[in-house]
Design goal:
Blueprint: E1 4-5, E2 11-14, H1 20-33, H2 44-52, E3 59-65, E4 68-80, E5 85-95, H3 104-119, E6 124-125, H4 133-141, H5 157-164
Parallel strand pairs: 5-6
Antiparallel strand pairs: 1-2, 2-3, 3-4, 4-5
Length: 170
């Protein structure tokens, strides 16, 4: 995807080495917004490995304005056994509050939709917190629909360690 210009002189482009501090600042700001300010353990070095290492496992698009990262979309590939194709799982979409209202969030979603269409992926998926009404409105405005029949589950921390070690909770 080639960079393209957005309102206010901002540029939307794939993330590049050197963007890690700005991406991490967005991740921290998102964690604050999602009421988990102390949950982020990610370092710039983690982002370098994940986004720009020899075998990237994650990808990102950024909106850059006046030399600063104004917004991000961090994503990775998923796979559907039902469609037989990859899709994109959007892990984080965030635009700093002072840069909202210029269409940057929609532009980031559009960029990921273009990646899907260009590569033949059939799905762009994400989760949103139930209370996050502004994001829900944005997602509905671009045609996103909740998948009410599905509940997301997560293994982490002690539960992940226990399962890996063969310890089961009864």
């Amino acid at each position: 995807m080639n960079p393209f210009t957005l309102p206010g002189g901002a540029v939307l482009r794939p993330a590049a080495p050197g963007d890690e501090p700005g991406i991490l600042a967005c991740i921290h700001a998102l964690a604050e917004y999602e009421r988990e300010p102390d949950a982020v353990a990610t370092t710039p070095e983690d982002l370098t490995r994940a986004l720009f290492g020899p075998h990237p496992a994650a990808f990102a698009h950024v909106v850059e304005r006046d030399g600063e990262i104004a917004g991000i979309a961090v994503w990775f590939l998923s796979f559907s056994t039902w469609t037989g194709t990859h899709g994109i799982w959007l892990e984080d979409l965030f635009v700093h509050p002072e840069h909202r209202g210029h269409g940057y969030g929609v532009a980031l979603l559009r960029a990921l939709a273009r990646v899907c269409v260009e590569r033949g992926y059939r799905r762009l998926e994400w989760t949103v917190l139930d209370w996050n009404e502004p994001s829900i409105r944005l997602y509905q405005a671009v045609g996103g629909r909740p998948q009410d029949d599905w509940t997301t589950y997560r293994l982490a921390g002690d539960a992940l360690e226990d399962l890996a070690a063969g310890r089961r909770k009864e």
